Amino acid sequence: DKEGRIMNEKLLNNIRQVEPYTPGEQPQTKVIKLNTNENPYPPAPGVARAIAQMDVDRLRLYPDPTADSLVSALAENYGVEKDQVFVGVGSDDVLSMCFLTFFNSEKPVLFPDITYSFYDVWANLYRIPFERQPLDENFKIKKEDYYKENGGVIFPNPNAPTAIYEELEFVEDIIAHNQDVIVIVDEAYVDFAGRSALELIDKYDNLIVVQTFSKSRSMAGMRIGYAISNPVLIKYLNDAKYSFNSYTMNQTSLCYGVEAVKDKAYFEETVHKIVETREWAKGELRRLGFVFPDSKANFIFAMHPEYDARELFEALKAAGIYVRFWGSRRIEQYLRITIGTREEMETLFAFLTTYMNKGE
Ligand code: PMP
């Protein structure tokens, strides 16, 4: 009609409609940005050097569809074969490709409630039946919920947004109980946490581990993620990818991604700094009266018994400090605070101290 609406119900019913994922705000002005779990430190110095030396003429050419340079760098880094590595445009792309490729059953795919809210979106988009498994009262995953018959399992470890990490034995129990279906362990934050399920890929044929350059490697803007598994599952993923978009990775992300993987010392140093700041920040949050599950990620999922989360969120935002607030079911009183630099966190806590009159 004149206002640009489509009134034809039949036509609309032929369109696949999903409730979209709502990402955190990305303000384009300089603020203290603690709302989307980015890394506060720059990418490895080799990335900046590679950017300075970039040969623009290479952009004329299609990128390598096999992403061989990046796949090789990752394989070397993790001590696996090249045919065990799949790369994509952020782990979102990798995970969405995994949903398409591996969740192919009439039985429901199981994932936690609450968890990364993109899982719902992909399941709906691809018409995959799913069943959310509620967390316990302490926001922990109940592993027995994943022992029933299902069409696949996916969960993040550490979980998001709770930041709770489960030990490898716990993860292995879920994998071991589900050997007829694919289990995807989304390890976006594992580098801040502890042992990775990568240790189990030779032991279980049904395991896919997904990781990202967006958090521990400071490259959210470059959009690189990867899956590591056995060669059979990786081949299925590549078959799907080549059918959809063989040139998934662009020329620049391939080149800069390799640089980011090479510099292990820088990676370890920045991860260490974030973990140190996180541990200190927990004490500050406690001092201010916040409560939160113990975080092993680069963010803390916190609530204050005396302050409304929306009001805190708005007050912080007005002060130029962005944190994540959802206002949705069960977590309406929670904020998720990304670990920034020590200085950024000091500014946050100084603001909260004044706001809550908690100064001496
Ligand atoms: N998994 C989880 C659990 C996440 O929190 C995120 C970040 N939003 C992602 C995957 C996707 O990150 P990216 O696409 O930047 O790799």
UniProtKB/TrEMBL annotation:
GO molecular function: histidinol-phosphate transaminase activity; pyridoxal phosphate binding
Protein EC: 2.6.1.9
Entry superkingdom: Bacteria
Domain Aminotransferase class I/classII large: 29-349
Modified residues (N6-(pyridoxal phosphate)lysine): 215
Keywords: Amino-acid biosynthesis, Aminotransferase, Histidine biosynthesis, Pyridoxal phosphate, Transferase
Reactions accelerated catalytically: L-histidinol phosphate + 2-oxoglutarate = 3-(imidazol-4-yl)-2-oxopropyl phosphate + L-glutamate
Gene3D superfamilies: Aspartate Aminotransferase, domain 1, Type I PLP-dependent aspartate aminotransferase-like (Major domain)
Sequence intervals crossing the membrane: none
Cofactor or coenzyme needed: pyridoxal 5'-phosphate
Gene Ontology biological-process entries: L-histidine biosynthetic process
Pathway annotation from the record: Amino-acid biosynthesis; L-histidine biosynthesis; L-histidine from 5-phospho-alpha-D-ribose 1-diphosphate: step 7/9
Family: Belongs to the class-II pyridoxal-phosphate-dependent aminotransferase family. Histidinol-phosphate aminotransferase subfamily.
Quaternary assembly: Homodimer.
Protein name stated in the entry: Histidinol-phosphate aminotransferase
Organism: Hespellia stercorisuis DSM 15480
Lineage: Bacteria, Bacillati, Bacillota, Clostridia, Lachnospirales
